[in-house]
Design goal:
Length: 77
């Protein structure tokens, strides 16, 4: 084997390790944000890219939770 071929193999392994590390970091961040309840702000852009219908559903649920029941006036009693 040539020295250049060995260097190419190490570059390939290093590249795969970097990609695997980045995907692992994203998976860890997603799990952590779900546990803490901050998933919408942290993972929202990724969700909109890969699952647009899920992002729309999440926004609609958030809007429904923010709506409040109208307070009755004292005259209605």
């Amino acid at each position: 084997m040539e020295v250049g071929a060995i260097d190419g193999i190490w570059i390939l392994f290093l590249s795969l390790a970097v990609v695997a590390g980045f995907l692992g970091l994203l998976a860890w961040a997603a799990a952590r944000s779900r546990r803490r309840g901050i998933g919408a702000s942290m993972m929202g852009p990724f969700e909109q890219m890969w699952l647009p219908t899920a992002a729309e559903s999440r926004i609609e649920i958030q809007l429904q939770q923010e709506r409040k029941k109208p307070v009755e006036s004292p005259d209605d009693l």
